[in-house]
Amino acid sequence: MICWICKSDKSLLSESIALVGYRATGKTTVGKIVASRLGWDFVDMDELLVKRLGMTINDWVRLYGWNAFRDEETRLLKELSGEKHIVVATGGGVVERAENRNMLKENFIVVWLYCPLEEIVNRLEKDEKSSDYRPSLTGLGLIEEVSHVLSLREPLYCEVAHITVDVSNKSPEIISEDILKAFCP
Fold it and tell me: Closest Cα partner for 20 from 97, 95, 105?
């Protein structure tokens, strides 16, 4: 198990967990397992936003732009910040706004699902959801985009993370166990 506490200023007795990390790192799959094992509710922010917006993220971004999407994401995170006994799978870019980073740190135990560049690219190439749920962030090719965006986001993920779990070559069940062991060693 590769799991460590990035920050010691947050009690691990929080009543909510938020999973952060780049696209395709397993936030939804792992979040469902962790929530089930804790007997808590699970919320996938991207899925809930698609329902609320009445269209795919790709369509929303095409029509209104990334800033409008981030505004909706921030509104939803504010709502979820008041909930207890939930596990939240955030969107990969939720950490881009300082307001969101503050909400995450103050209201959740934040778990960063760390994954190296090569594995993320491999997962995205195989992921059927990528075209609708994961519109291009930069207009670059896949490897270039992931490399560029990771270089910007990794410091932000670490800033908010109370726990970091390396998800490289691990099953969702093992990753979930790693997270739960951090709460109940």
Answer: 95
